[in-house]
Amino acid sequence: MLCEARHPVQGNAAAMSAHQAEFVRIRSSSPARTRELGRLLGERLEPGDVLALAGELGAGKTELVRGVAAGLGIPPAAVRSPTFTLVNRYQGERGTLVHVDAYRLGGPQALLELGLEQVFVPEAAVCVEWAPRVAAALPAARLEIELEHAGARTRLLRLRPHGARARALLQALAAAGQLQPAEGAAPEGGRACG
After folding, report:
1. Residue 192 falls within a domain, yes or no?
2. Confidence of residue 14 (pLDDT cuts 50, 70, 90)
3. Cα 56–chain centre separation
């Protein structure tokens, strides 16, 4: 895994203060690795946390959500792409997950018409796929995760925190060893992690 923190802090990435990073970039070498990153996030999610996911078709958004579900004690196989149902709610051993697919929504107003009280409930963590389509209706405090193709199985994930809680999630990933410095030179303007 390769990771790069923009505006890196002094010291190693594991001790980084995520509020000082504009974004963190992680390279995932397989769908299993993407699910593992999701699991690590899911284990650290709290009710009210929002993950706003972006990326092309097949970029791995649903794979990441399956990992998040596993981290919340929800069987990953239970998670399906909610394209036709728009909103799925799953109850796990560690918490509740609301999974939204905004692909077919015409914009923020369509999400509002679904009823935000059904989506952003205080007792659940929320994952929104195709989040840029409804960004204006999303809470300001969120962790944005953009997934992009970097090969047949490889994906680049860009994590951008908005708010203290999202920064705390990045710090938790760093503490779990997911943002450790990699061997070799850092990319220009960033810090390589692996």
Report:
1. no
2. very low
3. 15
